[in-house]
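Forum: Protein Structure Q&A
Topic: Joint prediction for protein chains with partners

I've read a bunch of threads here and the consensus seems to be that you should model interacting components together rather than docking separate models afterwards. I'd like to see that in practice. Below is the full input, 767 residues plus whatever partners are listed. Could one of the regulars post the assembled result?
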Amino acid sequence: MGACSSSMEERGRTTLNDVAAAIEGRFGNDISRTPASHGCALTYSLTKPSSLPAVCRSLFWDCGCLLGGIIAEEQPGRWQMHYVFLLLLSGWIDVVLTLPIETTTVPSIVAEVHAADWHEREIEDLFGIRFENHPRLGDFVLHDQIWHEGIDPMRRNFSASPAQLGKQLDLEWQPLLVVGDPGSFAMPVGPVYTGGLGESLHFLLETVGEDVIRAIPRLFYNYRAVEKIAEGRTVPDALLLAERFAATSAFAHSLAFCQAVERIHSVEVSARAALLRVLFCELERLRQHVAAISAICDSTALAVPAAQTSIITEQLLRASGILAGHRYLFGLNVPGGLSRDFKTEECRKLLASADEAERELRVLEKRLRYSSSFLDRLEDVGVVKGANARDLNLVGPIGRASGQHCDLRKACPYSGYERLTFEVPCETEGDGYARLRILFAEAAQSVRLMHQAVDALEPGPVRIPCEGNHPGAALGWAEAPRGATLHWVSIDEKGLVERYHAITPSFNNWLGFFMAAENFAFQDFPIILATWGLSATECDR
Amino acid sequence: MGVSPGRPVNTDFSSPDEAQLAAAICPVNAILAQGKSALVDPGKCVHCLRCRWGIPTPMNWDAGYEWARPSAGNGEGATFPASFSKSLHIMVVDAGDCGACLHEVKQLNNPLYNMHRLGFFFTATPRAADLLLVVGPVSENMRGALQKSWEAMPSTRRVMAVGSCAISGGVFGRSFMCAGGVGSVLPVNFEVPGNPPPPLAILHGLLMATGRKPATKSEPVAEGRS
Ligand code: SF4
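Posted by a regular:
Agreed with the consensus. Here's the joint model:
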């Protein structure tokens, strides 16, 4: 721990004023500062679209911000694009680009900020906006062998109801190959593989024989158009979607959604609700981290620890079921707090299960650290580190194993995390073993936080009214088990959802996966995958 | 305890108003009010718990897990012949699942459930699979792969839809991107409702499919108000 070259605290020394001075000094004529809104700490409106890439480069590289994501919204007669950056320990910075609706091309920022790559590809595929000079557009969310070009499902005039839009499955369709050496060939894996116990996604392993040179993931097999079908729904109905597009981090995503809605209504939840939310967030992180450790053991065919950790996972699922009435914590978060209150004794029982899990994990970690044959398979496997991790904007445990010391619970606190004591572990090796250590260390911190949350509980309401007609838009965020998640919700005057955009840690990190899967032995592929622990469905939405 | 989250079941209230209230709070129209009774369609219920915590008089809650049932269309006589009862190979396809059902299916391999002892095995190849277990509402991008998997199976194949999304589309419903359930793509023989159904409910489905549990539409036993 503490091995990171630049910790959150160090990088957080840059203040909003520093950023404002730098940006306004350089781009004073091209941007104008507007009142901070939507939950951001600093908002700029861009008056000269062509300086967008330079502004973004300055924020990302010169000011040391991280990329939150790009949010596109079609409004009556115009496009509004939000380029959201995170200044560690200070908050979100939003650069807003407003364009007439006839606009078809926007400058790409990919050459400056690589991490924006998939955000732009997604917008191009779903809205039909082209990004000038983007190196690779096309086949992404809408798979080319099924969908015609020119279908822009996120446009307002596109109806989400069932229709025969797809074409006949194009059997001739071929994915783009990168490796062109003589004798090289591509091995397709998926979307159905490992007996389907893995999620649906596809890899193209490009190889010249023994070693795999590249593994290019192809996602969005599980694309259910969640953001499209959320439009026009009431907030409680849309909440069901936020909670159910990626169940293994359902609580974090529903929390981010609810916080966005609460921000629109200017509602602050009670102290009790905030603490209970922390309790459930950490329970979810603990369970998900144990499941991830289990998958890593499984990928190296270490059957006993894999079985032990899967038992702990099941026990935590059961503890969730007993306390909350749902094994995956559905139905708890509501705008304004929680759907029901919990007795302190009930919460203490949950803590007992968490303590037991932690004890078992500690023993297991020690044993694994002394299993050299196991470590051999994790060390130097699936490496991304240093400048590459920064370049790709890796988030969550994967980022933190690669020297990217960022955790929204500290970097931009919510739900009262700023009042709790915990550490955010960080490693620099960026290999499979570093990621395993991070998972163990974070699981222990989660148990610590669960205790603090229950100890601090005081009587009070758990739900504050958060209804009525408040049109508006806002961001909500949370550190989900796999990393930062950022939800944009905009509501119209009838109280219906106008635009919902969920930027998820898996979407963010899948972009960087290719870098970890270069020049490796075929049998290491499952290990690389497991130590990354990404979710396809969380990316696809 | 905790092995099953339970689920709402048909409830007789003391007034029609209470039944109406229950029907009105359900976001997916899984509750039908008939006089003083409220009837639940388990294949639609997305387990949002609103009819439990969100209304003054909650629905009755069934704490069990024997939730599997033959499907209405192709369930009749679909039970596997006796020769499969000690060895059934299962292929799982994720057709737009949120990860919950898939995770619960995975738990069957957990020593706490250990489905091997009951003669159930996962297989990676459709050629060797007897049962196609599908989770998720069938996203358009997965439709082709699902169909191909089914076509590659031997003719004794059966299909089981696990989870409310696989049965009715769940919260995703039917859209340009979702088929609204496996039934609109393949002939479904068995269903395991739940959002997600716990591992024991899925196991119940497997036992039912192999004729080791009766394939009757058993009415769940209400455990009284909780
Ligand atoms: S739990 Fe939710 S979805 Fe299920 S019947 Fe009750 S209100 Fe309807």
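Helices of chain B lie at 16-25, 50-53, 100-107, 140-151, 164-168, 199-209.
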